[in-house]
Amino acid sequence: MATPRTLINVPAARSGEIIEIRATIAHVMETGLRPDDQGRVVARDIVTRFECRLDGATVFAADMFPAVAANPHIAFRLRAEKPGSLVFLWEGDRGFRHTETVALKVT
Amino acid sequence: MRAAVLRWSVGASRVLGALGGLGALGALGALVLSACVSHIGSTPVEAAPVNLLNTDTRRAGFADMSTALQAMQQDDTLNPAILWVREGEALWSQAPASGPSCAGCHSSPTSQSQTGHPSASIQTAATRHPAFDGTLNKPVTLAGRVDLCRQRHQNLKPQDADGPEVLALSAWLMHQARGLPITPPPDPRLTAWTQRGEQLYGARMGQLNLACTHCHDQYAGQRLGGAPIPQAHPTGYPTYRLEWQKLGSLPRRLRACMTGVRAEPFATGSDEWVALEGYLMTRAAGMTLEGAAVRP
What we know:
heterodimer, A: 3-stranded antiparallel sheet, 7 strands, elongated, B: 296 residues, mainly alpha, 47% helix
């Protein structure tokens, strides 16, 4: 997978409603502790930071560590007050950086 | 919670008992009826057996999972296998430089676009494999079929069932067939292969000298270590196993069983895998496909 595939679920909301936002990214989350079949330790390759911004303002952020499983799934709640643009950002080892933008629909 | 489960099981056994009683009454009635008929002297009509109780005791591994895992599998926003399904969906419509896209040949044109919907035969492909390939003169699994199509029509390099593109396309095809019953094709050319698969299923192997049947028929429903022993019905492959932390094919799962009994797994891409998969699919005929499943 050249660009990592993501699954993002942002439900449509009524104004003031609390919604659950879910984001999964395809990532190996290699711990850096595991030997390969030749006995050499595989270098660490994990996502270290997840952020979600609504129109530029950070609404949720999480730091991740080697104990997080592959394809990390993050769910958090947000009070939807006005429509906007949600930017999801994943950053990690080896210069890993991926962003996705999803519209937040509020009626 | 525990009390509720107990109540349910008591209730269920009551219902079953009542049904059993009905069955016995029915049998008695049939006896009386046949006696009357023979008394009158006309030829008794052989009635088709009526299945009052559901006697299909087959059980997919899904039923033995925790409710949390079941929910994870059934919700497309939680199921990590969907990452591969989406990848497969993208591959379906992308044409490689060396040939046409999957959609180019296999879609039924809709009013909106020429390469719109996957055709009906694509949507049900996962229910019908392994199927016989005339050119190779042997059956191919779903992953094998995807790989052959890629080689023959897209001029791409071969990949085994766990190759990234074949895995993603197989997952997408399996997801298309979610909820459909497994229907092995009634092709007489497959019979010998299914029999070979059945023989492999019953053949002792490895240092532990066990056959598939010893665990998955004789001890299914019990536990091996902490894990429940399933009946080994391949209703959701390729499957996302939490243990693997990724999607994997049926041969990968079977390989894990073979190394588990300390046997040397069959060679990658060998006929034994196809025969065994063919038998397992026949054994699970009529069971519902789960789509790309999640297992612990």
